[in-house]
Design goal:
Blueprint (H helix, E strand, L loop, with lengths): L1 H61 L4
């Protein structure tokens, strides 16, 4: 009977660690997503200008569109 209780307690501990890992990964993903949003808003105009300049150069060289 004691062995059964030990097994049940061990299974419970393993499941709680899995839940904690899932929460940690979720927080990590949320942090990365927030960082991407901040970078896009901070550098979006600069990146747009770079791509437009590249497009204009390609259009001038090839007499076509982007």
């Amino acid at each position: 009977m004691l062995d059964y209780l030990r097994i049940m307690l061990a299974a419970r501990t393993a499941n709680s660690e899995r839940g904690a890992s899932a929460v940690e990964y979720g927080l990590l993903i949320a942090g990365i997503a927030a960082l991407i949003v901040v970078v896009v808003f901070a550098f979006g105009d600069n990146l747009k200008a770079v791509f437009e300049e590249t497009c204009n150069s390609v259009t001038t060289a090839n007499s076509g569109g982007c």
